[in-house]
Amino acid sequence: MDLNTRSNGNYRSMYKLIQKLLFLLNAEPAHNLGLFGLKILAKLGLIRLITPKIQDKPIDMMGIRFPNPVGLAAGMDKNGDYIDCLGALGFGFLELGTVTPRPQPGNPKPRLFRIKQAQAIINRMGFNNKGIDHLVEQVKKSRYNGIIGINIGKNFDTPIDNAVDDYLFCFRKAYQFADYIAVNISSPNTKNLRALQAEDQLEKLVKSLKNEQKNLRTKFGRYVPFVVKIAPDVTDAEIKAIARIAKNNAIDGIIATNTTILRHGVSELKYGQEVGGLSGKPLKNLSEDVLKKLILGLQGKVPVIGVGGIISGHDAIDKFDAGAVLVQIYSGFVYRGPKLIQEIIMHRK
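Below the sequence we write its predicted structure tokens.
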């Protein structure tokens, strides 16, 4: 047995033990404890014990060179409190947030549920976060020198007609400190948020952000791209409208997709009928269907980040084959750990 094989075996044993212990807890306490544990391991210089060797496989998108095409999706580190330890796990980029202008507690607990039989998660977190100012301070203090995306949203009590103001507020605050900005208009857990995907609302939002992007580029002498994150529950007509708006307004990229309100594959399982967004393995086909239709509509003019249902390296390859330039993982990372990053990169041609 060579050193690499022994090292990978040790890593797998360590991660499985930690996961087994965390899965004894309810999902949200386990999430918080797991991140806290990562932070401690990083401070002690021991994070390598749960991290396999990750190969560099650089790829360019939006004028940014990513060290590898596997990113952490938004939601894992909403406040930027764990940037350094998550950055040490081998991701090609981290997306922080979703963050709002003002701090907010999110929805009542319990609001996060594991469905282990289906390798799925349901959440109705509701953009719980400490606000954009806190996240920016965490980014400024971080020692991580990798690619950071900041995912922005609106406060729950901001009327939908005033949503643009919230996005512009966060956009201005994040601009200097992000490599790219993600605009979340697709979470099912903030009332009426998905209405922003409607053609007229999306056009208004995008035009406002593009105008502000132009102003900030002049002010800071630096171009920061932004991407829009869409839902998997969009109709074919909505996909065509999103593609048209993206092309006509030179949006820098699209993330496809967020969580679904459908319950395919989990409806009969424990927690399967909980209200919220479903992620993980059951989302794969739905997310991929939207991705393929979106790629077709974009005609190669706007790049796409593929998200949803990536539990294995082969799942990620399906996203790449469909036309995604990068992928992001969340639920797959919960169930598989950093090994999934390595596996995706090894399968990538």
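The mean pLDDT is 95.
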